[in-house]
Amino acid sequence: MKEVFKYTFATIAEWKKFLILVVFVSIITLLEAMPVISIVSFIFEKLIYLSVGVFLIYMVRHSSTFEIYLENLKRNAISTFLFHYIPSAIGVMFGLFVIAAFWLFFMIIVLKFTNSVFVLANPHDILMALAHTTFIAKISIGFYLIYFLFFSYVFLGKFGEALSKTNAKGAFLAIIMSLIDFKFWIKTFNFRYFFIYIIWYLIAFFVYSAIVFIYNIQIIPALAMHPNLTLAIIPLFVAITTILTFYTYFSAYFAYKTTI
User: Fold this and answer.
1) Under 8 Å CB-to-CB from 29, ≥6 apart: which residues?
2) For a Cys-Cys bond, which of 34, 71, 178, 187 suits 259, CB 3.0-4.6 Å?
3) Which range among 93-107, 179-193, 214-228 shows the weakest confidence by mean pLDDT?
């Protein structure tokens, strides 16, 4: 687990690349507020992050020591850092889209089978709606959630495998195989993998929960009174998200390594 934190903080310490990425993504985030190009900006932002992720894992894989990793990270141009692995990023993103579509379709089937589709009518009151479903529906939805939680466990390692691929096809197949690679599922039942997953999950959960809480309680009222604060708040949130994203990439890769 110490390797995850070591590589994460070392990557952040390469502050020029980190700062350029934060500024670049912040600009894209501002563009997402424009109706015409919002979807394109959103997709491009995710591709940049994934491209950076593939680059970082490539550097780890091809650096025999931590010191060499730092040298390689400094030596590569910012254009390589941001854009070189866009093809692999496209493969990962397309795979994530298929996975998301699968889980959405699976959920609709469960709700349709139990005559509980009405719970989707108002997502804000979904818990209240679930209370009015049948016992069979509650059991079915419970199994769905347990299966989804288990999938998130094995998916972390498969995501790390996808980031280790330098072509779109390999990255896409690694993501898709997370649904049916039963041998890989078995290999994830080792202490190191479990420990990396638990620490990653707890940190990601608490950080994102804190962001949502602070944003709703503090940031929204402040922006209502001082809209210009957006220019300062967006880079701050992007910086936090970028740090957590780096941490997720290294957690995924080192989790994957425990299964090899």
Assistant:
1) 41, 45, 234, 238
2) 187
3) 214-228
Tally the domains of the chain: 1
190 in helix, strand or coil? coil
Contact 163, 92 (CB under 8 A): yes
Domain membership of residue 143 as a residue range? 2-257
pLDDT band at 13 (very low <50, low <70, confident <90, very high): confident
Q: Say which residues have a Cβ less than 8 Å from residue 22's Cβ, sequence separation at least 6.
A: 235, 238, 239, 242
Euclidean distance between the first and the last CA atom of the chain, given in angstroms as a whole number: 16
Instruction: Kindly state the percentage of the chain with pLDDT values over 90.
Output: 40
Residue of higher predicted confidence among 230 and 180? 180
Our CA angle for 155, 156, 161, nearest 5°, is 90
The structure's pTM equals 0.87
180: three-class secondary structure by DSSP: coil
Instruction: Using alpha carbons only, give the angle 41, 46, 50 rounded to the nearest 5 degrees.
Output: 145
Q: Are 20 and 79 in contact (CB under 8 A)?
A: no
Q: Which residues contact 59 (CB under 8 A, 6 or more apart)?
A: 69, 72, 73, 76
State how far the Cα of 252 lies from the Cα of 257, in Å rounded to an integer: 9
Residue 27 per-residue DSSP state: H
Phi and psi dihedrals of 114, rounded to 5?
A: -100, 15
**pLDDT tens figures, 190-204:** 999 999 999 999 999
**Residue 149 tokens, joined:** 């939680």
**CA–CA dist 43, 155 (Å, integer):** 21
